[in-house]
Design brief:
The protein has a seven-stranded parallel β-sheet. Helix content is about 45%, strand content about 10%. The chain contains ten helices and seven strands. Helix 1 (about 15-25) links the parallel strand 1 and strand 2. The longest helix is centred in the C-terminal third of the chain and has 22 residues, at about 220-240. The protein is globular and about 65 Å long. It folds into two domains: about 5-160, Alpha/beta knot (3-Layer(aba) Sandwich), CATH 3.40.1280; about 175-240. It is α/β, with parallel strands linked by helices and about 240 residues long. This is RNA methyltransferase.
């Protein structure tokens, strides 16, 4: 059974990375990916708190961006409070675990994002993610540290077990890397066409673009078709200018 990748985005302390690795080891999660760790990697401060989960630390990979860390993932999740300005599905850790198990039975990879200790995930981090995971906890004291959040998701995934029958899909979702390539391709074409004519609104427009293109679960064939359309439009404009 393919376990989900645990992705720590801009983690700050080696100690917290080590404790997250320990939580992963508790529940048979062995794929830890770091996006731009503040103090670099390897980090000697991660070893002691890992409490023997050395196999997780030794296999840890480092990535320059969220898109790179999620490139092979067909299902993408982010742990955060419900985003008010992003119309994304919101599930509990238990619901996410069931989705991940069913997808794994179909041979599909999942990735779960966890934000930095102090600030959490940004709007740009969340824009290309398909599903939000929010823990139903005491609203009067709703703060979880990084390792606790990883432990909670790991526990639910481990308890979910293998599904008896995979849920059928009409098509296999394209990996996140292919969708990210589609977003970058369209963004480049829009910039060349002068679409981003209000500089102050450009970052928000780009986030909206990412949300629009990650909301449906495109198949790989659909992604290739859309990119072919963008390429044809761009080439048509160049021929008219020539």
């Amino acid at each position: 059974m393919t376990a989900p990748a645990i992705i720590l985005v801009r983690p700050q302390l080696g100690m917290n990375i080590g404790m997250a690795a320990r939580a992963m080891g508790n529940f048979a999660l062995d794929q830890l990916r770091l996006v731009s760790p503040r103090d670099g990697w390897p980090n000697p401060e991660a070893g002691p708190p890992a409490a023997g989960a050395d196999h997780v630390l030794e296999a840890t990979t480092v990535h320059e961006s969220v898109a790179e860390a999620l490139a092979d993932c067909a299902l993408t999740f982010a742990t955060t409070v419900r985003p008010r300005d992003m119309p994304k599905p919101v599930v509990t850790p238990r619901e996410a675990a069931a989705m991940i198990r069913a997808a794994a039975a179909r041979g599909q990879k999942a990735g779960i994002l966890f934000g930095p200790e102090r600030s959490g995930l940004t709007a740009d981090d969340l824009a290309p993610i398909s599903t939000i995971v929010t823990c139903p906890i005491n609203p009067g004291h709703g703060s979880l540290n990084l390792a606790q959040a990883v432990l909670l998701l790991g526990y639910e995934w481990f308890q979910a077990g293998d599904p008896e029958t995979p849920q059928p899909l009409q098509h296999e979702p394209a990996p996140h890397g292919e969708v990210a390539g589609l977003i970058a391709h369209l963004d480049s074409a829009l910039e060349e066409a002068g679409y981003y004519h209000v500089p102050d609104r450009t970052p928000a427009t780009r986030r909206t673009l990412a949300q629009l293109l990650t909301r449906p679960q495109f198949s790989a064939e659909e992604v290739r078709t859309l990119r072919g359309m963008i390429r044809a439009l761009a080439e048509g404009r160049r021929k008219k200018r020539a």
